[in-house]
Fold this protein.
Amino acid sequence: MVREHSESPRAAGPNRTALASIAAAVVLVALKLGTGVATGSLSLVSAGIESSGDVVAALLTFLAVRLGGRPADDDHPYGHRRAENLAALGEAAILSGGGVFIVVEAVSSLLDGGHHVAARWYVFVVIALAIAIDLSRIGISLRTARRYDSAALRSNAFHFGADLAGSLAVLGGLGLVAAGFDAGDALAALLVALVIFAAAGRLVYENARVLMDTTPAEAYAQAMTAAAAAAPGVEVQRLRVRESGGRYFADVVVGVPPAQPVLEGHQTADAIEQAVHIALPNSDVVVHIEPGGRDLSLREQILAVALGSPDVREVHDVNVYERDGGAIVALHVKFDRDVPLEVAHAAADRIEEELRALDGVSDARTHLEPIEPAARAAQDGGWSEGREQEIRDLVERLTGRPARDLRALETRSGLVVLLTAAVDAGATLRQAHTLAGAVEQAIRRDHADIAEVVVHTEPGAATGS
């Protein structure tokens, strides 16, 4: 299967800028080399050689921008933007090679006592034209690089800056020659070489850091601050940030309370992802949720230990009894109904051992239970309209309000009654729980065959209103 890559709107601007740079570099090579040979100016010939490197560098940039503008694919899930960083390193190598050549020629000229340069008026015109061209293409490259986050065009602007500095050095050297100091041309050539080496070093430093996945300090700090602010109750366990072609990729691992529902964990991940996106626009963020292990209450630590066993299906009735010498923990642990007792007992022993290792816990006891099968609606003689009415009358007598949503389910253990009781809107949770307990006890007292009563309380209007 052949993949076709069309030029994206994002790549069109950088492509045009790279092509304009190639054309400008060709013009400068012709002007500098031609004038340098005609006048015998080593500094101008050196500047021409450096500009010929610009042609190769601009071609590399053009190819890198075209490749980097391709969208991500199966082989390059992070995109192709790092081709621009590789091109920038190629430009640095070209710059360094030109600098070495210039140093060798300039030192040889100085050792030979210098050479005569015909510093005629048109030489200065050529240099002025070269400076004007350099200024224009530096400005264009920087604007386009900022707009499209292009590392290749940014490095091209540095390259052109070195070319501009070289042109200014040549102008100064030829000015010295015109004033009668023949060594000024060779000295200007050495200054051009220093500027070239400085530009090449900066290119290598900046782009090698990106290719080596060096964490961008400022972006890391922004992402960490955003993640912590988005979910104050969670623990940011790990954050990794990398940059590729002006785009950030962030991996965040956060710890949440072990008993937190999956939906709440997902909402936490969404909040962190959105916050990091705002802090680092055009970023790719992945958030991984893990059970937290730091700053947890004793009850949360107990749940984390019990639910961490792969055989456990449910934990309830967790009680902590404070005693001198350490707390005693008791909890109910549910397993699959048909699991062998040996397996459930071994899992319970491991849980108890881990609980006793917690700070402040002296002993732990577990009660083993099977998971109940799914209940079905009652269809036998155990439930009738008369029994339903009796329960409704009982609930209204105890609460002062009629029962709501009264239902019965038949299970293997017997009938399970579900109902909703209204409580004064100003009541506390403790008062509501006490009332629910009284309703449950009264129903089970009058109807001994009912296995379970589940009373849901909700706020209602004040009594007598």
